[in-house]
Amino acid sequence: MSDFAIKAENLGKLYRTGQFVGYRNLQENLSHALLSPFRRFRDGSTQATKPDNYIWALKDVSFQVRQGEVVGIIGRNGAGKTTLLRILTRITEPTEGGAEIRGRVSALLEVGTGFHPELTGRENVYLNGAILGMKRYEIKRKFDEIVEFSGVEKFIDTPLKRYSSGMQVRLAFSVAAHLEPEILLVDEVLAVGDAQFQKKCLGKMENVSKEGRTVLFVSHNMAAINRLCPRAILLDNGRLVQDGHSVSVTNAYLNGEAGVGGQRTWELEEAPGTDELRLTSIKLLKADGTPASVVEVHEPLTLRIGYHIGQPGLSFRCAALFFTQGVCAFSTIEPSETRQEQIGDYFSEVFIPPNLLAEGEYTVGITIFNSRGIKLQFVRVRDTITFQIFDPMTEPSARGDYAENLAGVMRPLLKWKSLFRE
Fold first, then answer.
1. At the N or C end, where does the chain have fewer CB atoms within 10 A?
2. Residue 209 lies in a domain
């Protein structure tokens, strides 16, 4: 890959853990040096030499990114994502290996670095822009656009110390987002600000990705990764474990998390429920019958609920509740009760049509109960599985060719028509 913009070879970063002892004066240093041999004899070894006091934040990480490519970096907290970006931006040096970068680099790692509380918002725009590598004429040319994007126009000449934390974040991101580098490194910018501003951030990231710049994008938002990044890299415990198409990589990541992928099973002894009925499995299936944890908005789905009946002649019905953003997006229930005369394993299925849910992360809750006479709850479980919906904008959907974010947790593809008034 000769046209690379970023090339990392066997990157490793070793950190030492443990308590920081602070600075000592001359007397304390002499005392510590004289007593150290006795401490070693007493303790058998020093704290500093114990391997448990060191941790590899990155280990043997190698990859290349072509010029103009947009690549997502995903993984759990502590997987090494931020450490990787810090090495690429020369904030920290690797312990081993190296990285080569071709082109002007800008990074959105710690939004707001370099802001001064005594200066006004206007003055901080120029100060922060200069710190991030912008020329004064560039800042002046983009000043109105930066302020408008931030939404703090009324307070631009107010000292920053009077801003709320959210206002400071909005202004800081606005400055950083209007850089024009050849390579952009972005660390979880969609976590800043309120929900409305996060949507603006996502829209800005989409524009950047369409301008032909090389982008490394770290995020826990799998829908954003799949929408913005054709390729993704998965880090786990400091190591690169998968590199490929973003849908495949995010699907592997979600399925690798205990109990949060598109399917989940329980051993009968540990299955939730009662002796009469226990929930043994739940699967979200694509049209070809394969389990799914990352789903395109236009794909039809089937939710399969498996259960074991321990009492013959049991009557019950299943209900599934789909949650997102802390609210129930919708619920569905079997229209009539099922009666099974024999003990054994069974399952119920419900079809979920395409173009129903909006982009985002969803969890599924399951309830199985008898509603005749006194209501009996056999199973009631929340957050059984997790899946992601994203819109690749390659098939018909409620979005059409509208590239901005759409509000709501449901996004049905409805029929529209325009009529001439007679």
1. C
2. yes
